[in-house]
Amino acid sequence: MIGEIIAVGDELTTGRIVNTTSAFAARQLFLAGHSIQAMQTIGDAPKLIGEALKRAVSRAEFVLVTGGLGPTSDDLTNEAAAEALDRPSTLHPEILEKIRAQPWADLSALEKLAWLPEGAEVLNADGRMAGHLLVHEAVPVFFLPGVPSQAEKLLTETVLPRLAGWLGGRRSAVRTRLYKTVGLCECEINQRLLALESDRRVSVGYYPVGGEVQVSLSVAEAGEAAAESLFQEADGRIRAALDRHLYGTDKTSLAQALGMLLREKKLTLAAAESCTGGLISAKITAVPGCSAWFAGGVVAYSNHLKECLLGVDAELLRQHGAVSGPVAEAMATGLARRSGADVTVATTGIAGPDGGTADKPTGTVYIGLWQQGAARACLQCFCGSRHEIQEMTATAALDAVRRAVC
């Protein structure tokens, strides 16, 4: 189904709070086979909320509205919907009863939660923020709270199942997948997949994320069997085009993909970090069960700690500088000797914004890799902010290990 998302709240339009709820909803809806054609963020202005609602209902097959359902005076979504859609506010006694049963001091403000637009169906009567569904001119409009955890719970547990059965057997069968790559730029991937895009039943999208490029695939056909056949054909073509640059799909992270490889090959990994400051280790330790394959990491930022903790020779640092291939190799080698890990990776570079020179500008990074008694280093040149360079370096380092152990 084709939908729209409307997020309501002055805290969003003033930038006080980042609108993560819409991003989460769009992602989950996409993975469920739906297409979001528009996303809007609107302040607590009833007239604007009403105009956005009427416009969305006139052109979408479903609408998702988040925010403005609370008890305070600036929570105006329900009032705006009642006015714009000509559905007078109606008391829901079951909600009012639950509110009055709570041991809260001021019930008068909370009783506002029991007044919903006429025809609204409560989505979760037991929840703190119930949310509701309003079918207007055959278009389902889901109203969810703005608190991310509450909205996400209602979306996954209630909204997605309701949408899945909305059109019954009349809806097209949809298959989707997200492909995650490292080492190819967005334009190169696009060129490799142009022929696939010529099929109107197939939709392909490209999304740079940090040091990666993610590729989305969505296919739609009249029947389940036909959709599956088309999906498998498109999937095969994408995998062939991306080749070794593809590390995983959907929710798999690069660290997870690397961990699965290391587990399979019964290898352990350790990381020596300078410019990434522990980011590689953080990405790895976010993966449950990583202790089976990750020995640990060392953040050796100063030359002194490179010498003391990793055994990098002071003369090597003097001759080549900390940001160099020989030092990256020495860091990886020194960690291998001290950790006993099967594979070690090291990063040293200039993340900026200061510290760059004509010979080694900001973004100059060396990644060292030690495996089976031999060390090597590769030069990377990144652009962006300090955080972006660190993120791209960590991604490149993890990918270097992935390719080495494949």
Widest beta sheet: strand line-up: 2-1-3-8-7-6
Instruction: Please report the first level of CATH classification, the CATH class of the largest domain.
Output: Alpha Beta
CATH names the topology of the largest domain as Molybdenum Cofactor Biosythetic Enzyme, Chain A
Gross morphology: elongated
Taken together, the total number of domains comes to 3
CATH homologous superfamily label of the largest domain:
MoaB/Mog-like domain
In angstroms, what is the radius of gyration?
A: 27 Å
Q: State the assembly state of the protein chains.
A: single chain
The profile of the biggest β sheet is: 6 strands, mixed
- Give the terminus-to-terminus CA distance: 40 Å
- pLDDT below 50 for ≥5 consecutive residues: which ranges? none
Properties at a glance:
alpha/beta, Molybdenum Cofactor Biosythetic Enzyme, Chain A, Maf protein, 6-stranded mixed beta sheet, 5-stranded mixed beta sheet, 41% helix
Provide a descriptive summary of the structure in words.
The chain contains 15 helices and 17 strands. Helix 2 (20-31) runs parallel beside helix 7 and helix 8 (186-197) packs antiparallel against helix 9. The model has no long low-confidence stretch (mean pLDDT 92). Strand 16 (364-371) and strand 17 form a beta hairpin. Strands 2-1-3-8-7-6 form a 6-stranded mixed sheet, sandwiched between helices. The protein is elongated. The protein has 3 domains: 2-168, MoaB/Mog-like domain (Molybdenum Cofactor Biosythetic Enzyme, Chain A, 3-Layer(aba) Sandwich), CATH 3.40.980.10; 173-249, Alpha-Beta Plaits (2-Layer Sandwich), CATH 3.30.70; 254-405, Maf protein (Alpha-Beta Complex), CATH 3.90.950. It has helices spanning 10-13, 20-31, 46-59, 77-84, 93-100, 107-110, 148-164, 186-197, 224-242, 254-265, 279-285, 303-310, 314-320, 325-339, 386-405; strands at residues 2-8, 35-42, 62-66, 89-91, 115-117, 121-122, 132-136, 139-144, 173-181, 202-209, 212-221, 246-249, 269-273, 294-299, 343-349, 364-371, 374-381. With 406 residues, the chain is α/β, with parallel strands linked by helices. Helices cover 41% and strands 26% of the residues.
